[in-house]
């Protein structure tokens, strides 16, 4: 090969490299033809907001310089002038969007002095990588209202809309970051609030939760979220001169200090002082770390930060929310172990165990049986999970001062992803009607009422579907009603299609529509929750204050074992009759303990039962409304 032949490829390579370098270094700084064609009506013919790295604005003898943080910091944008600090990312993003979406209302071929561009109101530039636009904002245009003249070097002069004009005339203060503390809940390792008077509050992270330092008890999830929400809302409403801020915070009303989990990031400290000059509803605030910021903030938000440590103590046995729970286990004492019965004093011992795991939108039972729970039973599991997570203690005793808890059962919750397991040991109910729970997380002991402790017992009946009657019946088959819960007792018989009072034949018939509605409610009765396989004597079902509602059915298919005729009942030739009844005991919250005649299991009846009985009594002209609520409340 000759020297000339060998040199040809080398020359081609050099030319190609030169062309590539030109395209990269020269053409890259220009506007691509495709962009210019596509954005013919846009003020900036090639513009992508994510490519903007620097914005300069000059007006009113103020030089504003905004730069995108090279490391993609918290706020993404930094203010380099007139002061160096983090910029308000949302405000800068609004400016960038306005520049990107700016359109030409119309072109101005011969811009002159009348356009106000010889002495512009604002000048500036925007940089997108190697591409840069320099522009100037002139006087208002005669139309449309609020529009203004605008010039872009190399692109010409146009009339632009009011929104772009307004954005370019904003001062540097509009882009100052108004957030006092940039750390969210997940980034905080320690939070201190020191009031001028009163007890300081210190929260320290412990896994997914916080502890109230001192007693080392878990802090309430909702209370911490409220506190940190108030902190996030505490932003600068306006900025304050340093000398005025220093005077107002010389004796701080409240001092806030936040230590981040990331040890490489700086600590934050804010002093809240006296009322801001001229603004009675605001307090002066000075951030001393990591950089200085003086501002006026809403005084009501500062008050929300001033909380007593005791108000943050978690009174809930569990930290998890119901929708976060993937597995639930309630276990009684091992077979043969000492003690019998659960926290309610019932027969839940002997190694009883309830174990369920979430499967999609339902639940799978793993103990005492291994099966997919039917849809009706999943309602019971959801109710049980909700009861466990909304339970609250009347007293919380820190681990260092807590008494011994004789464990009768243990409840274990596994949160989503299996990353967090929570356990609570449950003691017996004492003579005072309360039980002690030991929260394994922080060792605190919680005192709860008997009604709450019941839900922490291993009762498989809790997994039952909600319908009360094991053998359903038709409300239309009822021929007699004995309402022992009414005052006075209400006894109705069905005669010739009308409901009449058994002991007062001369009284007008009861309202048939009301009676039919009440019977329908009773026939389709559902438990709010199943509590125990049988009555242990603590539900008030055998107390003198208990009451029973009995329904007699004209059921030709019923056998004598199903009930037979009732003395004093309506006489018909329909054959043997079935009798069903509900007994009501003590009240619990908004419901009442109850049991059906054909089932020993105890459940919580909803307030709807009471309302039905009140309506039933009220439907009789001889009874006063309100006399029919169950006794013993």
Rg, Å, rounded: 38 Å
Q: Count the strands? A: 35
Please state how the strands of the largest beta sheet are arranged side by side: 4-3-2-1-6-7-8-9-5
DSSP summary: helix tally? 11
Low-confidence stretches: 3-29, 335-349, 556-574, 619-633
Biggest sheet descriptor: 9 strands, antiparallel
* Spatial separation of the terminal alpha carbons: 112 Å
- Average pLDDT, to the nearest integer? 84
Helix percent band: 10-25%
Shape descriptor reads: elongated
Structural class: alpha+beta
What is the strand content? 25-35%
Short summary:
The chain has 633 residues and is α+β, with helices and mostly antiparallel strands. Helices cover 19% and strands 33% of the residues.
Structure description:
It is a single chain. With 633 residues, the protein is α+β, with helices and mostly antiparallel strands. Helix content is 19%, strand content 33%. The strands form four sheets. A nine-stranded antiparallel sheet has the order 4-3-2-1-6-7-8-9-5. A hairpin with a 2-residue loop joins β16 and β17. α10 runs antiparallel to α11. It is elongated and about 105 Å long. The termini are far apart. The relative contact order is 0.07. The N terminus and C terminus are likely disordered.
Q: Layout of helices and strands, plus pairs?
A:
Layout: H1 3-25, H2 33-38, E1 52-59, E2 62-68, E3 77-81, E4 85-86, H3 89-101, E5 106-107, E6 122-128, E7 131-140, E8 148-152, E9 156-160, H4 162-168, E10 188-195, E11 201-206, E12 209-212, E13 217-218, H5 221-233, E14 238-239, H6 242-248, E15 254-260, E16 268-276, E17 279-289, E18 293-298, H7 299-305, E19 325-331, E20 353-359, E21 362-367, E22 371-372, H8 375-390, E23 395-397, E24 409-415, E25 421-429, E26 434-439, E27 445-449, H9 450-453, E28 478-483, E29 490-495, E30 498-501, H10 512-523, E31 529-532, E32 547-554, E33 577-588, E34 591-596, E35 602-605, H11 607-618
Antiparallel strand pairs: 1-2, 1-6, 2-3, 3-4, 5-9, 6-7, 7-8, 8-9, 10-11, 10-15, 11-12, 12-13, 14-18, 15-16, 16-17, 17-18, 19-20, 19-24, 20-21, 21-22, 23-27, 24-25, 25-26, 26-27, 28-29, 28-32, 29-30, 31-35, 32-33, 33-34, 34-35
